[in-house]
Write a structure and sequence with these properties.
globular, 3-stranded mixed β-sheet, binds zinc ion, about 210 residues
Length: about 210
């Protein structure tokens, strides 16, 4: 039987790999119980709902096939939507189910889910973040997740772009072993990543609670 998207997301949030998501990045904190408890509960109680209808997360039409997105600028207490790429899901009765994925597609999808759930965690923390800090920390959390779920691609040039840099930084952190307190990310890594991440429109980065 196909797995629902919701159970796939919850499994991603409760996986032992989440133990590796533990770092301070500017004024945001990424920590395992944030995913496992704070964000997972928001999905369980449907304060965050998964959608494949892009109009639920944006008033603008998508440019090409949209990637995943989490609507941070939703008022606290209203349903927050996590847009899930329609190409990776299908309807199964009243639910959405995950398509059959290759192991590389699966690692990519876990990375994407953790990226978006990092924005949900930022929203839960109700912290003022620049778009660059919000995105760079989400890229890093995603890259650590991709590695842990088996994306072992080799980074040929870490300065090729933000994704390459995030994977390379993730590799350096993972080599240090499981963090028992938040990793302090070197200032030059934070600065490089922030200068190269893609950011959306400023007014969408409103972390006002889930
Ligand atoms: Zn993002």
């Amino acid at each position: 039987m196909a797995e629902t998207v919701k159970s796939f997301v919850l499994q991603t949030l409760s996986s032992p790999h989440v133990d590796w998501l533990n770092f301070r990045f500017d004024n945001t904190l990424v920590y395992p119980s944030g995913y496992r408890n704070d964000v997972a509960r928001a999905f369980e109680s449907e304060r965050i709902r998964i959608t494949i209808n892009y109009a639920d997360v944006s008033h603008d039409p998508p440019a090409g096939a949209p990637g995943a997105a989490y609507a941070m600028d939703t008022a606290r207490g209203q349903t927050h939507y996590l847009f899930f790429p329609p190409a990776l899901a299908h309807r199964c009765g009243r639910d959405l189910c995950i398509n059959v994925l290759t192991s590389f597609e699966e690692a990519n999808l876990r990375r994407t889910i953790i990226h978006e759930c990092t924005h949900a965690l930022q929203d839960y923390q109700r912290v003022r973040l620049t778009p660059q800090t919000a995105e760079a920390s989400a890229y890093l959390a995603g890259a650590i997740t991709g590695r842990r779920w088996g994306d072992h691609h080799i980074v040929a040039n870490e300065r090729a772009g933000a994704h390459a840099y995030a994977f390379s930084l993730a590799d350096r952190l993972l080599q240090q072993g499981l963090p028992h307190r938040p990793w302090a990310i070197p200032a030059e890594d934070i600065a490089w990543l922030k200068a190269h991440v893609l950011v959306g429109r400023l007014e969408r980065y409103v972390f006002n609670g889930i």
